[in-house]
Every structure is written in C-alpha cells, then in structure tokens.
Amino acid sequence: MIPLPDGVAAMARRGPRWADWVAELPSTAERLAAQWRVRPDGDPGCGHCSLVVPVRTADGVQAMLKIGFPEQDSENEHLALRLWGGHGAVKLLSADPRRHALLLERLHPRDLSTVPETQACEVVAGLYRSLHVPASPALRALSSIVARGTAELADLPRGGPIPHRLVEQAATLGRELIADRSVPDRVIHTDLHYSNVLAGDRAPWLAIDPKPLNGDPHYELAPMLWNRWDDIVADVRDGVRRRFWTLVDAAGFDEDRARAWVIVRMVHNAMWAVQDGLGADPGWLTRCVAVAKAVQD
After folding, report:
1. Which residues have a catalytic role annotated?
2. Which residues pair with 205 in a beta bridge?
3. Got the DSSP string for 89-149?
C-alpha cells in the first residue's frame, strides 16, 4: 500500500468530491502501479491538486506517478505533454486520462524558486519558445474563457473592492484581445512559474504541471509576476516591472500586448476572488490589483 502524505489528507477537507477522491487514492495508486508495472521508490508527495509518487519501472528506470484531482483545468495535461514530446517540458511516459493519471520522467526537486529572479525569468522566456507549438484542436480556447470572464465583469458592483477604472479597462482590453487575431494561437502552458520548472538531466530546466489552452502566448507572463511575492513585496512596482521587462525582452514579446494580457488576467483573478469570498487568502485580491497597476503606472 502506498502511504498518503499529510498534504493529501488535508485535501479531503475541501469538500465531498475531494474527500471521495482522497478515499480512493490508495486503491487507485495500487491499480496504476500494477498497470504500469512500477514500484514505489521514495516518499510520496503532493501538489495543490495531485498525489506524486517516485517509482521505478520494471526496467529500473526512475519515474514519477502523478494522480490528479479530476478538474477541467488539468484534464488535458497529457495532451500538451504529448505535443511537446519532452521539448521544454517533462517527458510523458504513459497516461491514463480516465483516472487523471500520468507516468512521467523523474526530474530533480530543485526549481526556480531559489534562482535569482532575472535569471529565472530568462529561463522561463526560453521555455516559451519550446512550448508554444501550433494550436491543437483537442485543447480548449483561451478566447472562450476570456469572453466569459469579460462578460462577468459587468456584474461587479461599482463600489466593490476592485477599482472600477481597472474593471472597465480590463473589459475593454479583453474584448479587443479576443477580436484581434493578428497573433496566431499556440499551445500555452498558462501556469508557468518558478515552482513549475524543475531541473533535469537531459536539459537544465523543464516545465511541469501545464493547464494547457490554445491561445495568445502573451497570456503566459502573469504567473511569473504574482509568484515569489515575498521577494518583491517591499517594492511591488519596481519588482513587477523588472520581471515584466525581463520576460518581454527575453521572449521577444510585444510590450503593449503583454501588458494588456496581464491587466486582463489579474482583474479576472481578482473578480473570481470576490466571487469566492477570498477563500483562505485575503491578500490575493490585493496582490491581483497591485500587479495590474504596477505594469502600467
């Protein structure tokens, strides 16, 4: 029996669906281990929505068994990993989409969290070039998600916690970006940040944990701005702008388009925080507004 780490047990408290999923995890993991002929090879860990187990294959190859919570954001992770074929991303060895399970090459635990931020931004910008392959008909479109979010902005109260000027600006920019087809859609990771890039043997750094969509590559920047927040909280404006410019320059992105997507994405995030009642992190809404302001002040 594969033991569950404490973090997975805590997931059960998120609601009935989570509790059911956690309860089934041990038997799911055992069935997958038998299916792929792997055995545990280290202590299991967990991400925000997944169990990860170091394993060895029947041939002695080190790998990682990942079982994800069944949610729409990550249901097509295996498709993106197949499209990338290990170029810029962790290599997919096998997948069981019905169980939201993946068998992946094993990378090192070191990520970009301790790498100087300018260097980390340059690494991620380099990964963009490998990951932004032509759009796939199997993936959802970013434009449809942004259209829904933009429509929802109209329901925000004028005197709410998000400055109305930002709400109106994001609504306008969202409509303009959806209508503008001058930049071809590509496969985009959508959650590429410091903790989702791990050190590897066949390449210095490789992306993990995509939540893939077809969309404008300029959409990718925002997670690099809102993560590692403690590093820039003393001077948010300069910290966000420094990261923004490093990413734009290293990736060869259009400045205005990248800025517009950051504003749209952060205001949508703030709106969802308002709708969710801020959840367990009341500082998240403040962070969203701060990033949206910093890229344009």
Report:
1. 191
2. 199
3. BPPEEEEEGGGTEEEEE---S-BGGGS-HHHHHHHHHHHHHHH-PBP-TTSPBHHHHHHHH
CA proximity to 221, closest of 183, 262, 279: 262
**Which amino acid is located at 164 in the chain?**
H
- Using alpha carbons, select from 188, 227, 193 the residue that is nearest to residue 211: 188
What's the pTM?
0.95
Q: Which residues contact 104 (CB under 8 A, 6 or more apart)?
A: 63, 64, 65, 66, 81, 90, 91, 92, 93, 208
**Exposure on the CB side of residue 65, measured as CA atoms within 13 A:** 27
Radius of gyration of the chain (CA): 20
239-280 pLDDT, tens digit per residue, is: 999 999 999 999 999 999 999 999 999 999 999 998 887 554
Q: What are the chain's domains?
A: 6-105 (3.30.200.20), 112-294 (3.90.1200.10)
Return the DSSP state at 162: S
Which residues are bridge partners to 39 per DSSP?
A: 56
